[in-house]
């Protein structure tokens, strides 16, 4: 599931079913009589372990309902439609191969929301990329700063595979915290989002944290994506 397949505010979580069908975020099957009920342990990759938990996301977003992970992936996301101008896909949302200059050593991503389609208010798409070293992660931050800036202060149009369109206004991109965090505000039809990216040093190289946090009822999500990105960066810090 990704926002690029969401032409209307009420459908922001509609792709969750597709993720479940693909095996991402699917609920465990009910126990069957006569079948071994030994619990299955879910492997969490080192990159996925850097992502804030649903409970942490509930706190960061200020949601009055618990955030829940509705989908996850360990590869880049396919775009279900077209974006104009196409060069702004990287600024539009996280997780697309064309949105990154770096060749990552790994990727982990999650979608979280505080309700079902049409009822959720808060939506988070968090992605972390592993890189060969800190320099590669920092280079990605600089490359994204240039790319997002080219798309700032303009309106982009996404057309879904079904032909529905939605427009998003991208504000100018800004660098915060001594140029270590890239932030850009996005406004759609009844939705306001914040995009943030940060680069950090990890135990075995570097990481890039890329986050989109949205208020699906038009509230102001300022600071939320930035805080999530910084949390990922903090989680990656090598321990002595």
Question: Could you say how many structural domains there are in total?
Answer: 1
Query: How many strand segments?
Result: 10
Gap from first CA to last CA: 37 Å
> How does CATH name the architecture?
3-Layer(aba) Sandwich
CATH T-level topology: Protein Transport Mog1p, Chain A
CATH superfamily: PknH-like extracellular domain
Assigned CATH class: Alpha Beta
> How big a fraction of the residues is strand?
25-35%
As a percent range, the share of helical residues equals 10-25%
Low-confidence stretches: 4-42
Form type: globular
Largest β sheet strand count, sense and barrel closure: 10 strands, antiparallel
Overall structural class, as computed from helix and strand content, comes to: alpha+beta
InterPro entries: PknH-like_Extracell, PknH-like_Extracell_sf
Domain PknH-like extracellular: 45-233
Protein name: Conserved lipoprotein LppH
EC number: 2.7.1.-, 2.7.11.1
